[in-house]
Amino acid sequence: MSRDLSDVRFLTVAEVAEMMRVSNMTVYRMVHAGEIPAIRFGRSFRIPESAVVEAIKPRATDVG
């Protein structure tokens, strides 16, 4: 069940904002609301790329 962290790619808030085409503040709000998991390093956050892909993946309930 444990994953090797060397396999996980972490993104900055700015990188996530660019991928999602939203502002940095929107990403911070999503992190603080628990919508996207993040790890805090000092004063900055790192977000697993897999969590971003999951967050932007279309869901059957979102379509049409």
Question: What low-confidence regions span 5 or more consecutive residues with pLDDT below 50?
Answer: none
Radius of gyration: 13 Å
Class computed from helices, strands and strand pairing: alpha+beta
Helicity range of the residues?
Answer: 40-55%
Q: So what's the oligomer here?
A: single chain
Structure summary, number of beta strands: 3
CATH class: Alpha Beta
Major sheet: arrangement of strands: 1-3-2
Q: Mean pLDDT, as a whole number?
A: 88
Supply the number of helical segments.
3
Instruction: Report, as a whole number of angstroms, the end-to-end distance.
Output: 36 Å
Q: Tell the overall outline.
A: globular
The CATH architecture is: Alpha-Beta Complex
- Per the CATH scheme, the topology name is Molybdopterin biosynthesis moea protein, domain 2
Number of domains: 1
Listing every helix as H and every strand as E from the N terminus to the C terminus, the arrangement reads EHHEEH
